[in-house]
Specification:
Layout (H helix, E strand, L loop, with lengths): L1 H26 L7 H18 L8 H15 L1 H15 L5 H15 L6 H12 L2 H10 L4 H14 L3 H9 L2 H11 L2 H14 L3 H9 L2 H11 L3 H15 L5 H6 L2 H14 L7 H35 L7 H8 L1 H14 L2 H8 L9 H4 L7 H14 L3 H9 L6 H6 L5 H14 L9 H11 L6 H5 L3 H6 L6
């Protein structure tokens, strides 16, 4: 049996090495890398584990992972040695500021990017195994000289290319050191803080934690007071992530966020200069797109709150700024509707492609079940942009079993503009998915699209599963 295991391990090492080298060749073929090749490498590892974990090989998961680690260590020996040198620099009390900033720069732009290349993926994981992230957070928290701080923030930002690494960074205390920096540091450092935070804020538990830390007030201040479009865009990006969490909606509305987003977007669009260079033009469009998605998310919540007493036979008292948003929703959403008529989802894709990597599609697709037609239109506009990306389609396909469903339903809806954008999105999806949406999704969309036609008593007679599903903040 021992001989069989030894032979199996040798065979496994050979197959892993072959799969890894194929991925390295493909992922290094372009500057950005080939994301599909990494997926293929992951599938190869999963397939080989299924083979070698069964009799007669009987390799357990820990031994299998140890063999993978050995193979990757051997394949990327030069990267491992380079990361070791940078770890030594970061940990040495004798290192100068120039040496530390140089190591942070190399880690950020040489060893962590582009993450689609397996060698960069390996370098980031190996850096984490050596407790490098803990040391980076310590350096940032010590308020080093500007150049060191800038490149240390960049290294953390580029490190967060997976859910595991993002959560590792959070566990090491990055939120504790970011808050004072976002209040007091220079513009360039603030931008890096916002960019890093935006990537972390797609996790719902982190959204709640960030708001509890008091970051929402910092976002509002930047959106209101900054005269730089990039700063405002980044702050709105973080805000949009928080607004996609139904547990934070009422707090966000009562904080005055609706008026801040509304006035900022209206002002930016009113001041839009058609003589802007291409970069400023796209930044302006992206700023409005991000802000309006956040506003649509908050309106989605308010529509549901209005109907809670209808569906669940209980009273919800809306007051303060929530009541103001209910009373003035058409007025707040009209500029959003006008903006969508003047812009094209392809322009958003031009800005996002290569710059934005989303972990979840749900914050956008849930808008398609909104009660207000402009909210649904915003969801369709976003889908027409996002579904052009193969990675986004893959995310959408695996969320909730099939998050294509609301897009398919919208393509059959009454609103002509939303239907047009949804069909555009579906033109990219059909290559991957041709199954019809689930019946529950069809019913849910029909109810949302025709809510005003239902009496209170007819809503209460709906099956309980539909009563739950038509309340957007149950997601």
């Amino acid at each position: 049996m021992e001989a069989v295991t030894t032979m199996a391990e040798r065979d496994l090492r050979a197959q892993l090495s072959d799969a890894l080298l194929k991925h390295v060749r493909r992922s290094s073929s372009t500057d950005r890398g080939d994301p599909s090749s990494y997926t293929e490498y992951e599938k190869a590892r999963t397939r080989l584990f299924a083979i070698y974990s069964n009799s007669p090989h009987n390799l357990d998961e820990s031994r299998f992972n140890a063999i993978i680690q050995d193979v990757e260590d051997a394949c990327f020996a030069s990267s491992k040695a380079a990361v070791d040198r940078h770890i030594t620099v970061l940990n040495s009390p004798k290192s100068t500021a120039n040496e530390i900033s140089s190591s942070c720069y190399d880690l950020s732009f040489v060893h962590f990017r582009p993450w689609y290349q397996q060698e960069r993926y390996y370098s980031a994981d190996y850096f984490a195994r050596r407790d490098g992230i803990r040391r980076l957070v310590e350096i940032i928290g010590s308020r080093p000289v500007r150049e060191v701080l800038r490149y240390a923030l960049s290294a953390c930002w580029n490190f967060c290319s997976s859910d595991y690494r993002s959560r590792l960074l959070i566990r090491e205390g990055i939120l504790d050191v970011l808050k004072p920096l976002m209040k007091e540091s220079s513009r360039e450092e603030k931008r890096k803080c916002y960019g890093l935070l935006w990537g972390l804020l797609e996790f719902q538990d982190i959204q709640i934690q960030v708001v509890e830390f008091g970051f929402l007030d910092i976002f509002c201040k930047t959106i209101k007071d900054s005269d730089d479009m990039k700063d405002v865009e980044l702050a709105l990006g973080c805000t949009h992530c928080c607004c996609s969490n139904f547990r934070l909606h009422e707090q966000a509305i009562q904080s005055g966020l609706v008026d801040v987003i509304f006035s900022t977007c209206v002002k930016v669009i009113a001041d839009f200069n058609y003589e802007y260079d291409e970069e400023d033009r796209l930044a302006t469009i992206m700023l409005a797109y991000t802000g309006y998605n956040a506003l649509a998310s908050l309106c989605l919540h308010v529509n549901a709150k209005q109907r809670l007493e209808t569906v669940h036979n209980r009273v919800h008292v809306c007051d303060g700024k929530v009541k103001d948003l209910i009373d003035n929703m058409d007025e707040k959403l009209q500029p959003m509707s006008d903006w969508m008529e003047k812009n094209d989802p392809d322009e958003i894709r031009e800005r996002e492609d290569g710059h934005y990597v989303w972990r979840y599609m749900r914050p956008f697709t849930v808008l398609l079940f909104g009660r207000h037609p402009v909210v649904r239109r915003m969801g369709a506009f976003a889908a027409a942009n996002l579904m052009q990306g193969a990675e986004n389609r893959e995310i959408c396909a695996r969320e909730d079993g099939n998050s294509y469903a609301p897009i398919q339903c919208t393509a059959w809806g009454r609103d002509e503009r939303a239907r047009q954008w949804a069909k555009k999105a579906m033109s990219y999806i059909y290559a991957d998915q041709s199954d019809p949406p689930p019946l529950q999704a069809i019913c849910r969309y029909y109810i949302s699209d025709n809510f005003e036609r239902f009496s209170d008593s007819s809503l209460r007679r709906l099956p309980r599963v539909l009563q739950r599903s038509i309340t957007p903040f149950d997601h």
